[in-house]
């Protein structure tokens, strides 16, 4: 989720809290998480948007709307497991857009990682993924999901080696990517900036509702395209809602239309 300072874009920064009667060990974990991500900690939070640290996971939760549920990263969920095993593999739209056919060890930089689902699908197909997330709240959710995946019998053998999280501002990190010795220049840069939802809020998925409360749309998304084009070796792929304008008003070489989304592909000569 792109550019500008996180504090400029975040509508309200949630604190990390714990359930009632949390153990001292859990409280310590929550405090350490808050310190690591430079977030507040409030053991007695009772309202608003919070990061709830439970024994099971870290989750984004709106305490004022208990029926909305919570959002957390679970790469071993039934939905992602089904998508990994039966989602179409390299025939899946995101795989086609990225250009996986006939490729092995494709290096992809997902510069707007979010909850990491597309990155996970690409990693499950053999890609090495670097993920950038600028929001400390979303990055904390991602880091928690990656840590738990290390203990999953089905994921631990490959996921930790293929998915790597970078917390920071995407435009800046991409511009300086080659100055860090451990960074590998990506074949593909993948962009999926947040886009305003025009539907009534009740029709929008719970996680998108919470994300809109937390972050709002990426008003500065256009700034991502130029550094992405300068960095990628093969292509830049932009995921957009079907009716959305081109990023930075720049027409892509290929448009892959879907029912709800569109992949705009910019080829690097």
UniProtKB/TrEMBL annotation:
GN (gene name): rsmJ
Protein name as it appears in the record: Ribosomal RNA small subunit methyltransferase J
Gene3D superfamilies: Vaccinia Virus protein VP39 (3.40.50.150), YhiQ-like domain (3.40.1630.10)
Keyword Methyltransferase recorded: yes
Primary subcellular site in the record, as a coarse category: cytoplasm
Reaction catalyzed: guanosine(1516) in 16S rRNA + S-adenosyl-L-methionine = N(2)-methylguanosine(1516) in 16S rRNA + S-adenosyl-L-homocysteine + H(+)
InterPro entries: 16SrRNA_methylTrfase_J (IPR007536), SAM-dependent_MTases_sf (IPR029063)
Keyword Repressor tagged: no
GO MF terms, alphabetically ordered: rRNA (guanine-N2-)-methyltransferase activity
The organism's place on the tree of life at top rank: Bacteria
Keywords, sorted A to Z: Cytoplasm, Methyltransferase, rRNA processing, S-adenosyl-L-methionine, Transferase
HAMAP family registered for this protein in UniProt: 16SrRNA_methyltr_J
Family from the record: Belongs to the methyltransferase superfamily. RsmJ family.
Subcellular location: Cytoplasm
Broad enzyme group: transferase
Residues noted as binding S-adenosyl-L-methionine in the record, renumbered to the chain: 117-118, 133-134, 192
Lineage: Bacteria, Pseudomonadati, Pseudomonadota, Gammaproteobacteria, Alteromonadales
Gene Ontology CC terms: cytoplasm
Assigned EC number: 2.1.1.242
